[in-house]
């Protein structure tokens, strides 16, 4: 008989992934790593939404995950374009060295 994985394990994994993403956003200075950490946080939320959706037997959470994934793809495209333009302008991707609001 196959045992199914309990929902608590999915939520623990989601919390660990979200924590790693939060630490990455708060401690790293490289803009690319910051955007990767944001993507990790979004995927952690997606994992918990899918776990709850599966647990309650409702597909609304999975539909919501689809929209979050579309938003994440758009965010990645816009973020990469911003990073590329900043790199062309300032020759660095470190956010503490980029100060475009300075007169």
Describe this structure in words.
- This protein is mostly helical.
- The chain has a single domain (7-90), classed as Helix Hairpins (Orthogonal Bundle), CATH 1.10.287.
- 76% of the residues lie in helices and 0% in strands.
- The protein has 3 helices and no strands.
- The chain has helices at 7-27, 31-56, 60-90.
- α1 runs antiparallel to α2 and α2 (31-56) runs antiparallel to α3 (60-90).
- The longest helix has 31 residues, at 60-90.
- It is elongated, with a radius of gyration of 18 Å.
- The termini are far apart.
Count of DSSP E strands? 0
The average pLDDT value, as a whole number, equals 86
Q: Would you give the CATH topology?
A: Helix Hairpins
Series of H and E elements:
HHH
CATH architecture: Orthogonal Bundle
CATH class: Mainly Alpha
Determine the N-to-C terminus distance.
Answer: 68 Å
- What global shape is seen? elongated
Low-confidence runs (pLDDT<50, min 5 residues)?
A: none
Largest sheet: none
Share of helix among residues? Answer: over 70%
Computed CA radius of gyration, to the nearest angstrom: 18 Å
| SS-based class | mainly alpha
Number of H- or I-type helical stretches: 3
User: What portion of the residues fall into strands of 2 or more residues?
Assistant: under 5%
Give the count of structural domains: 1
């Amino acid at each position: 008989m196959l045992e199914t994985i309990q929902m608590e394990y999915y939520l623990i994994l989601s919390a660990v992934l979200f924590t790693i993403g939060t630490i990455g956003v708060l401690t790293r200075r490289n803009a690319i790593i910051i955007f990767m950490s944001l993507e990790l946080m979004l995927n952690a939320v997606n994992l918990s939404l899918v776990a709850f959706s599966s647990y309650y037997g409702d597909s609304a959470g999975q539909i919501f995950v689809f929209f979050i994934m579309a938003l994440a793809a758009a965010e990645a495209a816009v973020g990469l374009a911003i990073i590329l333009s900043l790199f062309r302008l300032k020759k660095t991707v470190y956010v503490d060295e980029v100060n475009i609001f300075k007169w």
